[in-house]
Amino acid sequence: MKPIESTLPRVMKFEGDNRKMYNLSLHAQFHFLQYGLVKAADQAKLKIPAAVMTTWEAANKSETQLDQESTASEHTAKLLALDNERDNILSNIFYVVRGYRYSSEASKKEAALRLSAKLRPYTTLRNLPYEMESARIRGLEDDVSTMAADIAAVGLTSTFTELHTANEAYETLRMTRRTGSADTKLPTAQQVRALADEAYDIACQYIQAAYLYATADEDKTLIEQLVDRMNKVTTDLKTSHRQILAQKKAAKDPKEPKTPKEPKQPKEPKTPEKPKEPKQPEKPGGGSGEQPKKPDEKPKDPKKPDDGNPDITLPEE
To answer: Which top-rank group of organisms is this from (predicted)?
Structure first.
C-alpha cells in the first residue's frame, strides 16, 4: 500500500497564551506589542477591517491608563508622609512654646505665654481628620500672623514656614488626586481587557485567512514572518509571567517549621497495692470451731435383728 501524500494546505498557527492570567501591566504590554506588529504590516494584504484595529488600539490605550491609575496608592503613601510631617512640625511648635514658658529670660517667657494662650485651641489639631486638619492649620496661621515678634523670640520663625509649606504640599497633592480621578472616566479593567482580547482574536483570524487565500509567495512569506514575530512576543511574555509568579512566591517568607513539642514525661507507674491476703476458708459448721456433724447413718432395716449376728437361715431337713 502506497503511503498517502499530504496535499493539505499549510495554515498559520498562533502560540497559545495565558494572557487572561496576566496582571494589568503585562496584559496591556501584550496587546501593545501585538498591535504594533500587526499595524506595521501591509493592511491591504491582511484585510483586517479598520474598525477592528481602531477598537483594539482604543482598548489598549484605556488599559494603559487604568494601569497608570493604579499608582494612586503611591499618592496615598505621599499624602500620609506629608501629613506625618505636618504633625511632627506641630508637635515641635507646641513643645518649644511650652518649654519657653519656664525660661529664665523674661522676654522669651512672656512671648511663650502669649503664644501658648493663642495656640491653646489647637492642641488637639493633630487628631483631626485630614481635611479638617488642613483647614485648622490655616486658621492657626491666621491667628499667629500678628505675632511675628513673639514667634521670633522663641526661635520658631522657620518652623512656622515649614508648617505652611507642608500643609500646602499636602493640599496640592490631594487636589491633584481628586480632580484627576474625577476628570478621567474610564471603563473598568475587566471591560477593556475583554475588548482588547476580542479584537486580538479577530485580527488573528483575519491573518490566518489572508495566508490561506494569498496567491503570491512573497505575501505568504510576509504573513509567515508576522506570525513568527507575534508568537515570539507571546512566548516572551509567558516567560515574564512565570518569572513574576516565581518572584512573588520567593518573596513570601517560608513558614518557620513548628518547634516540635517536647515529649511528655511518661507517667510513673502506680505502686501496685499489696495483694489482699486470701480469706481463710470458713470452717465447716459456720466457722465456730464446731466439728462438722456426721451425716446421718443409713436407716436400719427393721426386718434385721439388731443383735449383731448375721441373718442366716438354715434349710429344714
So the answer is: Bacteria
